[in-house]
Design goal:
With 315 residues, the protein is an all-alpha fold. The protein is 77% helix and 0% strand.
Length: 315
């Protein structure tokens, strides 16, 4: 049976998908659209963000009941969804890019759909044993929200530039914004996300360096997850500094922001698969320990203390 979190996520995903369709209808309309449609899109977007934030707070304060807000992957995805919606509304009114919702809402829909999977089928709580891990999770999730804004702003830049190259009007009304305004959004959100990504990487290296089980693995420092994370960091370092060079401006900055997000998602997938393998190994060890305890108890005539002495040797 589906729990309240999963049901709420399904409703939010359907609402976001409907809002995405309205936003693209507005963007691609051949004639000027009424202001009422624009108000409907803004209202529905705000409802999606409010629902994501409410569900995040519900899980933090009621379901989890502890001071750490991020105790599972679904919590992080809800945090990204809430931040992403707030950034969409903020950029629409403050950065002169009114068409950004049409490019951001599809990403928001995918994040909420991913959260459904993380809640219903692949739910596994984090085993947070240090402040470094809490810092790592918070900086990576918030940084990902900012880098997602940079990525779909890059897609928006390429869309607008392509229409201009074909000598088509970017919009019959100013629905996208100028290329300069879109590029500023790419650079600023990449810079903020890059800073948080740096904090997350440093915290992650500290976690690896202080965990003897991880450092005991051969070649841990060039594992695919770590290698990709460093590549992502280098890509956003380039995007952040495009204002100082003409080599990576415009289209190249847009493509780099998209590539960076794709590689960051690859790091996420590798991390999740690594955690899943770790849990399987730990469960296998726990099952083996339980079997040894049962065998020792039966051999000692039902006295569990006999295994208590033998357990350290068995481990």
């Amino acid at each position: 049976m589906l729990n309240l979190t999963t049901l709420s996520l399904i409703l939010l995903t359907v609402l976001t998908l409907a809002t995405t369709a309205l936003a693209w209808r507005r963007l691609l309309a051949s004639r000027p659209v009424s202001d009422s449609l624009d108000r409907v899109i803004v209202t529905l977007t705000a409802l999606c963000g409010l629902g994501s934030l409410t569900l995040f707070l519900y899980r933090w304060l009621i379901v989890n009941g502890e001071w750490r807000p991020l105790t599972a992957h679904v919590d992080g995805l809800l945090l990204i969804a809430a931040l992403l919606t707030g950034l969409l509304l903020f950029l629409r009114y403050r950065s002169q890019v009114p068409g950004i919702a049409a490019f951001g809402l599809p990403i928001l829909t995918l994040i909420l759909a991913w959260a459904i999977c993380a809640s219903a089928w692949t739910f596994h709580p984090f085993r947070i044993g240090s402040v470094w891990l809490s810092l790592h999770l918070a900086s990576i999730y918030v940084g990902t929200a900012l880098l997602a804004v940079a990525a779909f702003s890059g897609g928006m830049y390429l869309f607008a530039e392509r229409r201009l190259r074909r000598k088509q009007p970017a919009t019959p009304t100013p629905r996208l914004g100028s290329l300069e305004a879109i590029e500023r959004v790419i650079i600023r959100t990449s810079a903020a996300g890059f800073g948080l990504l740096t904090v997350g990487l440093v915290a992650g290296f500290v976690i690896y360096a202080t965990d003897k089980n991880l450092t005991a693995m051969p070649g841990w420092w060039y594992a695919p997850k770590i290698t990709l994370a460093v590549i992502v960091w280098c890509i956003y370092a380039l995007v952040t500094n495009v204002r100082h060079t003409t080599l990576f401006r415009g289209r190249r900055a847009a493509w780099l922001s998209i590539l960076g997000l794709l590689l960051l998602l690859a790091v996420w997938i590798l991390s999740i698969s690594f955690l899943a393998k770790t849990r399987v190994s730990q469960n296998a060890e726990t099952a083996a320990t339980t079997r040894l305890a049962a065998q020792a108890s039966s051999l000692s005539g039902g006295k569990p203390q006999a295994f208590a002495e033998a357990a350290p040797c068995a481990s």
